[in-house]
Amino acid sequence: MNKIATSQEEILAASRKIILEKGVASFSMRQTAAAVGVAVGSLYNYFPSKADLLSATIGSIWEEIFQPLARLSSVDDFTKFISEMFDAIKKGEEKYPGFFSLHSLDFAADDKEKGKAAMNQYFERLKARMVSVLEKDPNVRAGAFQQELSKEVFAEYVFTLLIALLVQKKEDCQALLQMISQCIY
C-alpha cells in the first residue's frame, strides 16, 4: 500500500535527487512518485501538473544553489558579491551538471514556459540583489551611473557576462571583476 506523502518538501527533495542523478530531460511524475513511495495521483494533490512540479523543483534547486549568498546579506562590496555569486553558481553546476547551461532546460513543450518562468524569477531576484549591493557599496565613484547606464542596466550587463563565463566553463571571473572595478570605482 502506498503511503501518503508527508510534505511538498519531501516531493521536492525526491525530484531534486532525480534531476541530480538523471538530469532534467529524464524527469517524470512517475519517477518522483516512486521515489517518494506514493501513487502518481497523490502528487497531483501537491502539484497540478508535471510542469508545476518541475517548476517548483527548479525553484528549489536555485534556492539550494544560492543559499551561500544568504550569508552575504550585509555585504557592501559589489565585486565581492559578484565573485561569491560566480562561485555559488559554479558549485551548483558541479552538483547539478548541466543544470545551469542554456541547454539544460530541455523541457517538454508544455513545461518550457513554466521552467523558463522559474529560472527568470531567480534571475530577476539576483539582479535586484546586485542593484541593492551596488547601492550600498561606498566605493562606487560619484557619477558612475547615469540615465543610459543606470544601476539596473549595469547589473543586467554584469549578470549577462557572468552567465556567459559560466556557460563557457571559465574557472574564475577575475577579468569581469577587473572590468567592473574599472567601470565603477
Concise summary:
Helices cover 64% and strands 0% of the residues. With 185 residues, the protein is mostly helical. It starts with 7 loop residues before the first helix and ends with a helix.
**Beta-strand content bin:** under 5%
- How many distinct folded domains? 2
Instruction: Characterize the biggest β-sheet.
Output: none
Mean pLDDT: 84
From the structure provided, what is the oligomeric state, counting identical versus distinct chains?
single chain
Q: Detail the poorly predicted runs.
A: 102-109
Radius of gyration: 19 Å
Count of helical stretches? 8
Shape: elongated
Distance between the termini: 64 Å
Helix-strand makeup class? mainly alpha
* Residues in helices, as a percent range: 55-70%
Q: How are helices and strands ordered from N to C?
A: HHHHHHHH
How many strands in all? 0
